[in-house]
TrEMBL record, chain A:
Membrane among keywords: yes
Keywords attached to this entry: Membrane, Transmembrane, Transmembrane helix
GO function terms (MF aspect): sodium:malonate symporter activity
Gene: madM
InterPro entries, alphabetized: Mal/Na_symporter_MadM, Mal/Na_symporter_MadM_N
Domain Malonate/sodium symporter MadM subunit N-terminal stretches: 6-251
Bilayer-spanning residue ranges: 12-27, 39-61, 82-100, 106-130, 163-185, 197-217, 229-248
Originating species: Aquirufa antheringensis
Name under which the protein is recorded: Malonate transporter subunit MadM
Claim: Transmembrane is one of the keywords in the record: yes
NCBIfam families noted in UniProt: malonate_madM (TIGR00808)
From TrEMBL, chain B:
UniProt KW Transmembrane keyword: yes
Protein name (record): Malonate transporter subunit MadL
InterPro entries xref list: Maln_transptMadL
Transmembrane keyword on record: yes
Segments passing through the bilayer: 26-45, 92-112
Pfam family of the protein (one): MadL
Keywords: Membrane, Transmembrane, Transmembrane helix
Gene: madL
Gene Ontology cellular-component terms listed: membrane
Classification lineage: Bacteria, Pseudomonadati, Bacteroidota, Cytophagia, Cytophagales
Length: 252, 119
């Protein structure tokens, strides 16, 4: 047994690929059978990741989730900031300035408003609930943008792992809510044209949630919403650890 | 060709992150300021530039696409190494911070739709 754990730790990254693949496979099955595709597999697998990290934390009393379990140390590499940021940057490919230009100033406005309002709402809630330092408040505000902006901001500002976990959890809640809620609310907010989809993507930002939610509303709207939503994470990653963080430091 | 795409992505990543780190130093904080955002901008700009000159091969794009498809798995791995046990004692905060901003943004939707230019 001992030599197997040593082997798994030595080949940690490859083992992490395998386990993550299994998590995503079962999440996809759960998504299709239990929720009839209403909650996307990606949202379920992220949630399952958080659940696994929770139980691993109970078991090991460590800070690094399942990476604290012997044999699973590779998750620290796969889920670490290097691969994460590398993958996020890659999603920018194909997003063209020409299409964003066509959206006109209103698309850009919705992007900025989406980031700033989500951030402000997140910060206010965190503050009301007793968090007072600028780094933690900024990280949770960033998490209210997306589950990517939160950890990127938190890592950049040196926020603690539990605050980063809250920011991810907030982003995941948002993603699930947008996925489930979009088709339900679409008739009431006039979500039926490409323009409105672009505004929606800009305001909501959570690419996985917007893409899945629009797919359930009207598949024709997906590329428009996803297009602006793609820029949201970049804008959030740009604004949260910089101007919005400085703003928080100035206020506090 | 495949690796050229990965190398292009890596070049954008490194330059963007270093710019972010440098900006952080210049601004006097020990933090990376928007490095990921800059890297994304570099990738979009360099792709557009390469396409204009006819230097962007399909296979180069595949090298980048692989990583954009790895994005969700990596996020899954990332969520599984977080300190969720401690975060769970703040579960209500995460729930509210996920729900309230969505409602706040949705409230703006009809207003912005009115401002949007019609076809």
């Amino acid at each position: 047994m001992e030599y197997i754990i040593t082997f798994l730790d030595k080949n940690g990254l490859v083992f992490a690929f395998l386990i993550t693949g299994l998590i995503m496979y079962f999440s996809e099955r759960i998504s299709k059978t239990l929720t009839r595709g209403k909650i996307p597999g990606s949202a379920i697998s992220i949630f399952m990741g958080l659940v696994l990290a929770y139980f691993a934390g109970l078991e090991t009393l460590g800070k690094k989730g399942i990476a604290d379990i012997p044999g699973f140390s590779g998750f620290e590499i796969m889920g670490g900031p290097m691969f994460r940021d590398f993958a996020i940057v890659s999603t920018a490919m194909g997003a063209s300035f020409a299409i964003i230009k066509k959206t006109g100033p209103i698309g850009v406005l919705s992007l900025f408003l989406g980031v700033i309002i989500s951030f402000a709402a997140g910060v206010i809630i965190a503050y009301v609930m007793g968090i007072t330092d600028a780094e933690s408040l900024t990280t949770i505000g960033a998490g209210a943008c997306t589950f990517v902006v939160g950890p990127v901001t938190g890592t950049a500002l040196g926020a603690s792992s539990d605050i980063i976990a809250i920011s991810i959890a907030a982003g995941v809640v948002k993603s699930i809510l947008v996925t489930i809620g979009t088709p339900l609310i679409a008739p009431y907010i006039g979500l039926k044209t490409p323009q409105s989809a672009m505004i929606f993507g800009g305001l909501m930002g959570t690419t996985s949630g917007v893409a899945a939610g629009l797919a359930a509303t009207d598949p024709k709207l997906v590329p428009y919403g996803a297009m602006t939503a793609t820029f949201y994470t970049g804008l959030g990653c740009l604004m949260c650890p910089s101007v919005l963080y400085f703003l928080m430091r100035a206020i506090l | 060709m495949l690796l050229r795409g990965v190398a292009l992505l890596a070049a954008c990543f490194v330059s963007g992150q270093i710019l972010g780190e440098t900006l952080g130093r210049l601004l006097g904080i020990q933090a990376n300021v928007g490095g990921v955002g800059f890297a994304m901008l570099f990738l979009i700009l360099s792709q557009n530039e390469l396409e204009k000159r006819g230097l962007f091969h399909l296979e180069m794009g595949e090298g980048v696409h692989f990583w954009s498809k790895m994005y969700i798995p990596i996020i899954v791995a990332m969520s599984s190494v977080q300190n969720v046990r401690v975060a769970f004692s703040n579960g209500l905060l995460a729930l509210l911070a996920g729900i309230i901003p969505v409602i706040a943004c949705l409230a703006l939707m009809p207003l912005l739709s009115k401002l949007a230019p019609k076809d």
